[in-house]
Structure formats: C-alpha cells, structure tokens
From TrEMBL:
This is Putative repeat protein (TIGR03843 family). It comes from the Bacteria.
Length: 272
C-alpha cells in the first residue's frame, strides 16, 4: 500500500488493540488496523490489508498543568497536518477517530525503525564529524561527557518543524529512522501551546541561516495559512493557532534558527 491508502485504512479500518506500551506516561497502545472483510470470503485469494498503528486514547491522557485536559490526541493529529502542509514527510500518517476501542484518540501508522541514532553521548574529544555538541554532562564517576546530535538536512527540518509546532518534548528517543534514510519524529502530544514551551535536544542548529528550500517551505505554509488554520481549528483554540502563526512569521523574519531562550529551561527531560 502507498501512503494515501494507508491513511485511508487508518481512517476507516477496524481497530484491534494488541496491548499497551508500558514505558509511556500516557496510555499508548499497539493496534492492528484491518480493512473490512469481503462479503464472500475467499480463503485462497488475497487477504484484506492490515497495518500496525499506535493508538493514544483521550481517556488515557494524564492531566497536565500547562495543557488543557483531553487535547493531546488532537495535538498529535495537528502535528501530522503541519508536516503535510510543509511537505517534509517527518511524521507518520495520523488520524483522529471517535470510534476506537477505548474511545476517541489518535491513530498513527507504526514505524519499524532501524538502529540509527541522531542523538548520542561522547567524550568531549570524541564527537564525530557531522555532529554538534549541545549539552555538557558527566558520567557516574565524574568524567566529562557531551550530548551531541547529527547535522543533516532532515534533522534541520525536524528542528524547524518543532519550532513552528512549539514542541515541548523533543528528546533523542523521539527521533527515529526508517530504512532508506527517513528521519521521523514521534510523540507530538505536547505541541501547539499558546505559551512558549519549546524544549528540544536539537539546539545545535541555533543561529544557522535557513536554506533556500527551508525558506520556500515556510513561505508556502505562510501563504496557505488561512486554510491550514481552518484545519487546526478542529482541535486547537484561536490563541494556539495565532501563536503558531507568530512563530512561523518570526522564523521567516529572522531568516535563521532561533537561539535557546535564557529566561526558562529549554531542554527536554530526560534529554535522551
């Protein structure tokens, strides 16, 4: 199946929960999404297609002090729509459905990631070429270490995506890699807050100028903002949508990646 077919299956297929992922702070379930069975089964013929998906029900969201209750699943969907509007293929196809086993929630296509990592820990003199140090740290025995991330085009785009989405939790484990070199961001429930919440491990791009391709994608989003804002209004309030527009305008005006704020903590915890 191609991307549109998988998205259609997520939107219309039958969802069966396989189990819960226990290392998630909110209820997160692995599910199988199946196409409807044919009216006349044909055992020897092709079987209805299926995909695996991550299901995050609103009913399983832990209350937070700085995000309205029951909104994280909608923010997952809004982040996917932002990625579609930018045309960057950084977020797996995601839908928001009301007819799921544990109630309304987001359903995102499962990614079978490889072992590539974009964020890692090194000795200060051992940071490889093509990596940028972000955090000074130390080992349990007090030896100095640094946390660094790769510097490449797809990671730059993910950093820009997070700026517009105001991602409050871009830790290293939320960056995955699919076979073929695709960089994918996951866990976008803590996005689109009206207040500045950006907490990311990708601050190594701070101050770098936008490339022509990056600038063109942001300008295209700006030009279609009214239509995009209409989409977001299904899950976000006016203040959140207007704040996203202001962040987009700020990046375009400055023409570069912003620097970390000095008035608040700007790293996710834990960073990896």
């Amino acid at each position: 199946m191609d991307g549109p077919e998988k998205l259609e299956l997520l939107a219309d297929g039958t969802v069966t929960v396989l189990g819960r992922l226990l290392d998630s702070s909110n209820a997160t379930m692995l599910a199988v999404v199946s196409a409807p069975e044919p009216l006349e089964p044909t055992p020897s013929g092709p079987q209805p297609p299926t995909v695996q998906a991550i299901y995050k029900p609103v009913s399983g969201e832990r209350p937070l002090a700085d995000f309205p209750p029951g909104t994280l699943a909608g923010r997952e969907w809004a982040a996917y729509r932002l990625d579609v509007a930018l045309g960057w293929d950084l977020v797996q196809p995601t839908v928001l459905r009301t007819d799921l086993p544990a109630g309304t929630g987001s359903l995102q296509l499962w990614l079978e990631a490889d072992e590539t990592t974009s964020v890692d820990v090194f000795e200060p003199t051992g940071v490889p070429d093509g990596w940028e140090p972000v955090i000074q740290a130390e080992s349990e025995d007090g030896a100095p270490l640094v946390v660094a991330h790769r510097v490449d085009d797809r990671l730059r785009r993910l950093a820009l995506f997070d700026i517009i989405a105001n991602n409050a939790d871009r830790k290293g484990s939320h960056i995955l890699h699919a076979p073929g070199g695709r960089t994918i961001g996951i866990d976008h429930g803590l996005t689109f807050n009206a207040d500045e919440k950006l907490r990311t491990i990708l601050w190594g791009f701070a101050g770098l100028p936008l490339s022509a391709d990056e600038s063109d994608a942001l300008k295209h989003l700006d030009a279609q903002w009214d239509a995009f804002a209409g989409e977001l209004s299904a899950v976000l309030d006016d203040d959140e949508i207007n704040a996203a527009r202001a962040r987009l305008a700020g990046v375009l005006s400055e023409g570069c990646f912003p620097a970390p704020p000095t008035s608040r903590y700007a790293l996710p915890w834990p960073p990896l």
